[in-house]
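Troubleshooting: if your tokenizer reports a length mismatch, compare your output against this known-good record of 284 residues.
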Amino acid sequence: MFALNQEVFSKDAFQSLNSIMEIQGQLSSMLAGAIASLVITRWSLQWILTVDAATYIAAFLCLWSIPYKQSSERSDKKHTAMKEGLTFIKENRSVSIFLLLSFMPFIAVMMTNYLFPIYLTQELKASPAAYGIESAVYGFGALTAGVFIVSIMKRTGTELAVMLNISLFALGISILFFMKLLPIYFSIVFLLAFANAGTRVARNTFMMQKIPNIIVGRVDSCFRFITLGIRILLIFFFTYVTANDRIGLAFLGLSLLLLSSAGAGWILYKRKKRKQSALLKSVL
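Known-good structure output:
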């Protein structure tokens, strides 16, 4: 996606493009689950795998047809590509910190994939049907974000949209720590899905706007490497506390992480606005 942004699409299309990709991604996941539940009992395994392989071939042909030419400035050396991404991060610290904070909802979602089943079983004493309802509610929340996030970004701006969604996610996790009721849990899952998907669309748009096209994919890879390390550390912590029947402590830690990330993000956002305001006054 990032390698194609300025070569194929204009900057004015970034918001709509990311929103459409989020919608089709969530919609395809929901439809895939529904279709799989129907065909898995009617088709043999070899036919299912054949159709699955055919979809990958079709996707490859679609991507191949995109009118994209690789820039001659790109480096083929992997270590050079990683170095260029890290160099941008070091030279643009405020943007890089803001982007790292915007990955926190994604990191939290990865953690909730581990924590939510334990939470449903130990704290809410929910039936197995609750797992299916949770998946449906999450998909609907993410799909809703894909539909409305473009209009939100147009009204608030990309950076403010990122911060609003991070704050919404932090609020949802914090409420979940205190309110242990199944209806509230499903409502929070909807909010978390909306905030995570909204943050992802706004973050991708922000990266396309702020990072040169030639290195945007490399910078994104560096951030994903960093967030992978954070996820590994959190998994160690959550595995320890849940093994000792302290699921509440895990959610408290996740809540504090997200609240501190939202707070730091707001500080960066306000600082940037003050600098822009001061620069505008000096020009006038």
